[in-house]
Amino acid sequence: MSRSNEPIEASTRISVVVGNPRPDSRTLRSAVHLAHALTGRDPGLVVDLARIGAGLLDPDDVEVTGIVAEVAASDLVVVASPTYKATYTGLLKLFLDRFAPTYGTGLTGIAVPLMLGAGSEHALAAEYTLRPVLTEIGGLVVTRSLFVLDSRHDDPESYGAWLAESRPVVRALLGATPASRPATPTGAVA
User: Fold this and answer.
1) To the nearest 5 percent, what fractions of the chain are helix, strand and coil?
2) Are strands 14-18 and 45-48 parallel, antiparallel or unpaired?
3) Nearest one of 36, 68, 32 to 52, comparing CA atoms
4) Which whole-number Å values give the CA distances from 87 to 90, 126, 148, 163, in the listed order?
5) What is the pLDDT of residues 31-52, one digit of tens each?
6) 158: helix, coil or strand?
7) DSSP summary character for residue 180
8) Each residue of 16-27: pLDDT tens digit?
């Protein structure tokens, strides 16, 4: 098991998926920051859904199908969205609808829900909307969801308390073999 200040093993597959309709968004920067802060490494796969375009609407799109397979095989995936109408974006929903554990395309690793929003009145959006769907599609959600104010997305203090609580749990599970990780039944919230 790695210590909190050491990078995790190079073989660990780390991904970030961002459902902000604006490319290169604050949400993207926050998600990449969070993945690095949790693991000590940059993510190997960063999916900025705003850059994929119409392929998300085509169930036979080869590029999107490949991205889904890569994300599904990740040991850790940070899934991030801005808060739109008190939930995650439709763009992210289009992508997450591609995951179906009963058809072999569910998430297989740890999933971390992250949402950004303009005001603290949306602070529970990630916990009540994004966390359940990540669990439903097979993700092992072992931490509270993280909500960050848009205006503080680049402030390390916005992540500090959450990281102090969550990083040891995530790193301990990433150090475990996949077979020894606790299973989360479909539909259950870990």
Assistant:
1) 45, 15, 40
2) parallel
3) 68
4) 9, 7, 14, 23
5) 999 999 999 999 999 999 999 9
6) helix
7) G
8) 999 999 999 999
Residue 186 has which token pair?
């479909």
Tell me how far apart the 2 most distant CA atoms of the chain are, in Å: 43
- Within 8 A by CB and 6+ apart from 68, the residues are 95, 98, 99, 105
Phi-psi region at 14: left, alpha or beta (left = phi > 0; alpha = psi -120 to 50) = beta
Its pTM stands at 0.89
Is the CATH number of domain 14-180 3.30.300.130? no
Q: Where are the domains of the chain?
A: 14-180
Whether pLDDT at 10 is above 90: no
Beta-ladder partners of 47: 17
CA–CA distance from 81 to each of 12, 33, 105, 127, 183 (Å)?
Answer: 23, 14, 21, 12, 25
Phi first, then psi: give them for residue 116, nearest 5 degrees.
Answer: -110, 150
Residue spans of beta strands (DSSP E) within 58-125: 76-82, 110-117
Amino acid (one-letter) located at 106: G
One-letter identity of residue 86 = A
Give 170's contacts (C-beta < 8 A, 6+ positions apart): 38, 39, 76, 110, 112, 142, 143
| Under 8 Å between Cβ of 15 and 91 | no
pLDDT 10s digits, 96-151:
999 987 777 899 999 999 999 999 989 999 999 999 999 999 999 999 999 999 99
